[in-house]
Amino acid sequence: MNLCDCGTIKRIMEGAGIGFRKDLGQNFLISSEVPIRCAEGCEANENTLILEIGPGIGCMTDALACRFRHVVAVEIDDRLIPVLAETLAEHDNVTVHHGDIMKTDIAALLEETKARYGLPSDIPVAVCANLPYYITTPILMYLVECGVKFSSITVMVQAEVADRLTAKAGTAAYGAISAVLAYYGEMKRLFTVPSGCFMPQPKVNSAVVRLALYQDNPYSTKSEKVLFRTIHAAFEQRRKTLLNALSSGFSNIGKDKLAEIIEKAGLPPQIRGEKLDITQFVTLSNFIYEETEIL
Ligand code: SAM
N or C: fewer beta carbons within 10 Å in the chain? Predict the structure, then answer.
């Protein structure tokens, strides 16, 4: 069964008596080439355990199951669980978990799956998903903070979000999420997916990006909490100078002290936060941590 075929999807949905839920970001892929390219884009070997978020009716899951050792797919929509049991019946290496990814203990789910299927405890784990667009950034943050050492996170997102995720310091698209994710790994845009590749067709194009996660973080951070607070403060008021933005974000540190810290970090006094790359944010936040009683 070709799960990326328009007619097949319609038949499956009608057969189950269900429609697409816009509020859950249900735009299903109708191009069988795209899931294969996503699976290749993971750059993971075949002995990998894949976490998929939002399998829908299983178009991407099918491609992932054909290529990788095991797939765990987390789907929030209870109406799709019996559908997936049928569409993925031919694969014995897929586990469908009904739940909200944002409320799922991902580390525990992966451990359970390894134990149940006799997978090696040190099997590489990667994420591959066509993400629901209403919740892209929170999911990405949840994934990097969930305590699992993924080798990579390959996701389809709206093209404009892909621009933000891959933006370099000083560009218009560069934002807090670009800097925060750069702390965790190297982000790369892989390819564009036209809106015509989905049903129902969204208004905008999508793109696939891959975050290759650092297995040993190269940044010597004194406090991740202060680092992320510094980044968020800098972008909260991105039109202001870094000094003014930090004065608002760290109102309990005096402006003179912050000016001194900015100078110690080797940054020009009038610089804007949006010009700083992740290395500069780490240096700056280390000075904030060391020179103040923040925390
Ligand atoms: N993977 C399918 C495909 O590519 O055709 C469907 C992708 S569709 C863009 C997003 C999927 O994520 C939907 O199946 C939706 O029900 C599911 N979803 C939405 N929010 C979710 C959440 N918080 N946790 C898990 N799945 C979610």
Answer: C
